[in-house]
């Protein structure tokens, strides 16, 4: 199995180092040969080649069976030409690999229930949500877009577009995910205001006819943001567009303890899938051995499950993470509730010990 590893920027290299160690131990333990190659993306690629997504990186990803990504971006590149920002590298590779479905599971590990900011009686009801975020369309990619001067003043504009085929395929992914879970799907939109959302809703309803066993509901995004913290137990699978999914998944992460815990899988119609934590490059703690590597390690478990059909290996990683949390080890982001403060390396090594 060929895996293209892109550490990226900020805490990216630190968390990826732990992730790759975990992957190698899994390889030894279960007798698999994971062949990893590194590729440049984001700011690291800009510094080395002048662009955030070099052709060699795209080629390396396409020749791999799966792709792992740390994070991209940081203050160093915040003032460069927006056309070559680090984030363009990430958006570019998602588009190049047609990774339209971004699965972001937000589940609370029982060991972290005290790290959750919600009232204990709400936490008690359980938090286990799958956010299915559309990843290659919507306002992130819609045209026209740009900035200009009009009537003597500056203006910027983007366009939120969804084509029928884009909504259909993400809706199918979400219904299928719901079928394997608690058979509830909530489609989140802004159909009371946006035309694009009205089409989104219409199409989701049409697709629902093929999934009579799944209970479909609709919610406006502002209400969804509120309901996520009021009573997250009401959600099973959430399907939504690119921008709403970006925002709601960060919100969902914090009710599970920390953004440093949430993994993701970005999938297209065929391999390679791309696996990455949902968080960014955390420039405020980069290079200090403070980052939580668990979101990356759990992303590797998702890779094993979704790209390589290795359920047992994925379970092994997830159990090792649980065991490590049970032992009370905590990185700073989940530290506020007690436990033993450890760095990124120590957390990675503890997971390896528990594999
Ligand atoms: P961020 O997710 O990088 O950080 C937000 C906060 O969460 C920070 O306080 C950070 O220290 C903390 N945090 C994030 N991940 C953590 C981890 N693993 N362990 C401990 N703490 C963690 O978001 P931001 O500050 O808005 O963005 C920083 C940069 O990252 C920007 O350039 C942004 O564009 C980029 N970004 C990249 C990705 C990605 O590569 N997928 C995702 C989000 C943001
Ligand atoms: C994420 C990030 C990216 C996004 C950025 C860095 C392009 O926030 O992966 O959640 O908005 O999709
Ligand atoms: Mn995001």
Question: What CATH architecture of the largest domain would you give?
Answer: 3-Layer(aba) Sandwich
* Spatial arrangement of strands, main beta sheet: 2-1-3-12-11-4-5-10-8-9
The residue-averaged pLDDT reads 97
User: Mind telling me the C-alpha Rg?
Assistant: 20 Å
Give the names of the bound compounds.
nicotinamide-adenine-dinucleotide, 3-isopropylmalic acid, manganese (II) ion
**Main β sheet profile:** 10 strands, mixed
For CATH, the homologous superfamily of the largest domain is named as Isopropylmalate Dehydrogenase
How many domains? The number is 2
Q: Kindly name the structural category.
A: alpha/beta
The total count of helices amounts to 12
Looking at the structure, the CATH topology of the largest domain is Isopropylmalate Dehydrogenase
Strand content: 15-25%
Cα end-to-end separation? 20 Å
- Amount of helix: 40-55%
SSE string: EHEHHEHEHEEEHEHEHEHEEHHEEH
Uncertain runs with pLDDT below 50, 5 residues or more? none
- CATH level 1 class label of the largest domain: Alpha Beta
Number of strands: 14
Shape: globular
Organism: Maridesulfovibrio salexigens (strain ATCC 14822 / DSM 2638 / NCIMB 8403 / VKM B-1763) (Desulfovibrio salexigens)
Cofactor: Mn(2+); Mg(2+)
Function: Catalyzes the oxidation of 3-carboxy-2-hydroxy-4-methylpentanoate (3-isopropylmalate) to 3-carboxy-4-methyl-2-oxopentanoate. The product decarboxylates to 4-methyl-2 oxopentanoate.
Keywords: Amino-acid biosynthesis, Branched-chain amino acid biosynthesis, Cytoplasm, Leucine biosynthesis, Magnesium, Manganese, Metal-binding, NAD, Oxidoreductase
């Amino acid at each position: 199995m060929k895996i293209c590893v892109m550490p990226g920027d900020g805490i990216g290299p630190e968390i990826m180092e732990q992730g790759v160690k975990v992957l190698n131990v899994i390889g030894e333990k279960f007798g698999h040969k994971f062949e990893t190659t590194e590729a440049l993306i984001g700011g690291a690629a800009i510094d080395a080649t002048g662009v955030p997504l070099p052709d060699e990186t795209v080629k390396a990803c396409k020749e791999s069976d799966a792709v792992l990504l740390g994070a991209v971006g940081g203050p160093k590149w915040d003032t460069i030409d927006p056309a070559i920002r680090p984030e363009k590298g990430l958006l570019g590779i998602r588009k190049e690999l047609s990774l339209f479905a971004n699965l972001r599971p937000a589940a609370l590990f029982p060991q972290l229930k005290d790290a959750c900011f919600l009232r204990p009686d709400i936490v008690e009801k359980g938090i286990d949500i799958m956010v299915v975020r559309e990843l290659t369309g919507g306002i992130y990619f819609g045209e026209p877009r740009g900035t200009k001067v009009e009537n003597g003043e500056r203006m910027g504009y983007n366009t939120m577009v969804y084509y029928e085929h884009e909504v259909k395929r993400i809706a199918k992914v979400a219904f299928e995910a719901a079928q394997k879970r608690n058979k509830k799907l909530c489609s989140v939109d802004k159909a009371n205001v946006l035309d694009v959302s009205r089409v989104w809703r219409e199409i989701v309803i049409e697709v629902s006819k093929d999934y009579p066993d799944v209970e479909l509901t609709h919610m406006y995004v502002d209400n969804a943001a509120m309901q996520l913290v009021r009573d997250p137990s009401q959600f099973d699978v959430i399907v939504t567009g690119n921008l709403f999914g970006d925002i709601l998944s960060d919100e969902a992460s914090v009710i599970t303890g920390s953004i440093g815990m949430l993994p993701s899988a970005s999938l297209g119609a065929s391999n390679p899938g791309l696996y990455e934590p949902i968080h960014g490059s955390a420039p405020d703690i980069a290079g200090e051995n403070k980052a939580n590597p668990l979101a990356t390690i759990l992303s590797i478990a998702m890779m094993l499950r979704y790209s390589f059909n290795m359920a047992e290996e994925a379970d092994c990683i997830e159990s090792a993470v649980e065991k490590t949390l049970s032992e009370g080890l905590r990185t700073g982001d989940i530290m506020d509730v007690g436990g033993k403060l450890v760095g990124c390396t120590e957390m990675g090594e503890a997971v390896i010990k528990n594999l």
